[in-house]
């Protein structure tokens, strides 16, 4: 009897803990689904606001008339012209946020972002070279140059950040990206300034905005965005393994180099496609994944869909704000995202929950 007492005392808490684990996981999953539905509702509400608000406000009845049939009259024609820029804001925001989340997972760097790592600027420089020396003028040509430029800079920054002891640490990657972005920005200026015939258009494009969104441009980059999204989502489980460290991930059967390369390819595709059509837009890929981790945790299978919705919401909101604050003039979304993203990022970093990935 005495021997059985301690055994019972030991096994009882284990059994209680095991039986309590599944309900806890189910509650966490239900909470995530609830947040996901709320994000979907927020995105839909922002889409309607984006169609209604601008330099010329229109009525709600006109908005719903355009959504359900062909436009009639000047007001409804204005709404129809806002549809492609709204679609571009949704796609660009989702792509940049997912790209940032994947880059943070690949590098295990909480400061990773297409802008901070210089990938945006690499794509920008390549597009500017194409415009200045090869006469590019359409998104069909921009996308290929942007893809090459973004890929080369991504490899370059990772190689520089990997030099020395400790390999590619977050600090070295951030410093390498910042230095590379500064150097590439100078090269862009050196190419553009002597060429007055392209200076105005290039400088407007470099501000980063969705006002030039058209259906042909969206159709041009849509295949690249779709492929990039699919690649990133398929590597979500592998990114979870990379978060444990390369040695442990390899011990679990993960092909670390292949997973890192494939995930990086998906992130570069997304970043290059957005930069080609909308110009460089910062802070979306940095802030949104951090904010979404507060809702979902670090599981990339949840984080990437949340980041896509959060990025779409942020960039659509930035576009709406940019249109209504100084009518009839507009403020480009990259300026609004910086104003929104900088204080939000500072607030997120102050929280202990995001001190490490």
From TrEMBL:
GO molecular function, one term: transmembrane transporter activity
Residue ranges of the TM segments: 30-51, 86-103, 115-135, 142-161, 173-193, 221-243, 263-290, 302-325, 331-349
UniProt record, GO biological process: siderophore-iron import into cell
Principal cellular location given in the protein's record: membrane
InterPro entries attached to this UniProt entry: ABC_BtuC-like (IPR037294), ABC_transptr_permease_BtuC (IPR000522)
Xref: Pfam families: FecCD
Protein localization: Cell membrane
A single Gene Ontology CC term: plasma membrane
Key word Nucleotide-binding present: no
Coiled coil ranges: none
Keyword Methyltransferase set for record: no
Keyword field: Cell membrane, Membrane, Transmembrane, Transmembrane helix, Transport
Mode of membrane association: Multi-pass membrane protein
Family: Belongs to the binding-protein-dependent transport system permease family. FecCD subfamily.
Protein name: Iron ABC transporter permease
């Amino acid at each position: 009897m005495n021997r059985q007492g301690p055994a019972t005392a030991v096994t009882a808490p284990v059994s209680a803990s095991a039986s309590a684990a599944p309900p806890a996981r189910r509650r966490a999953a239900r909470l995530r689904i609830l947040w996901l539905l709320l994000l979907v509702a927020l995105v839909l509400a922002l889409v309607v606001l984006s169609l209604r608000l601008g330099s010329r406000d229109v009525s709600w009845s006109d908005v719903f008339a355009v959504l359900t049939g062909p436009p009639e009259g000047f007001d409804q024609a204005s709404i129809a012209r806002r549809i492609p820029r709204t679609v571009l804001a949704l796609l660009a925001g989702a792509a940049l946020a997912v790209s940032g989340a994947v880059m943070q997972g690949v590098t295990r760097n909480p400061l990773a972002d297409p802008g901070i790592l210089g990938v945006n600027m690499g794509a920008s420089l390549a597009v500017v070279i194409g415009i200045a020396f090869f006469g590019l003028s359409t998104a069909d040509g921009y996308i290929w140059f942007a893809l090459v430029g973004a890929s080369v800079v991504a490899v370059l920054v990772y190689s520089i950040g990997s030099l020395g002891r400790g390999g590619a640490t977050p600090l070295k990657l951030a410093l390498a990206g910042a230095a590379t972005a500064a150097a590439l920005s100078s090269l862009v200026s050196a190419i553009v300034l002597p060429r007055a015939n392209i200076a105005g258009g290039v400088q407007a494009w470099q501000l980063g905005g969705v006002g030039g969104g058209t259906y042909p441009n969206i159709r041009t980059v849509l295949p690249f965005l779709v492929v990039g999204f699919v690649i990133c989502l398929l590597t979500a489980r592998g990114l979870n393994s990379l978060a444990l460290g390369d040695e442990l991930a390899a011990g679990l059967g993960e092909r670390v180099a292949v997973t890192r390369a494939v995930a990086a390819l998906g992130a570069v595709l997304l970043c290059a496609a957005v930069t080609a059509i909308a110009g460089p837009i910062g802070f979306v890929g940095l802030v949104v994944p951090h904010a979404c981790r507060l809702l979902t945790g670090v599981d990339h299978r949840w984080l990437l869909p949340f980041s896509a919705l959060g990025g779409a919401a942020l960039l659509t909101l930035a576009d709406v704000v940019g249109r209504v604050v100084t009518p009839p003039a507009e403020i480009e979304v990259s300026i609004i995202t910086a104003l929104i993203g900088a204080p939000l990022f500072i607030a997120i970093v102050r929280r202990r929950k995001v001190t490490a990935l």
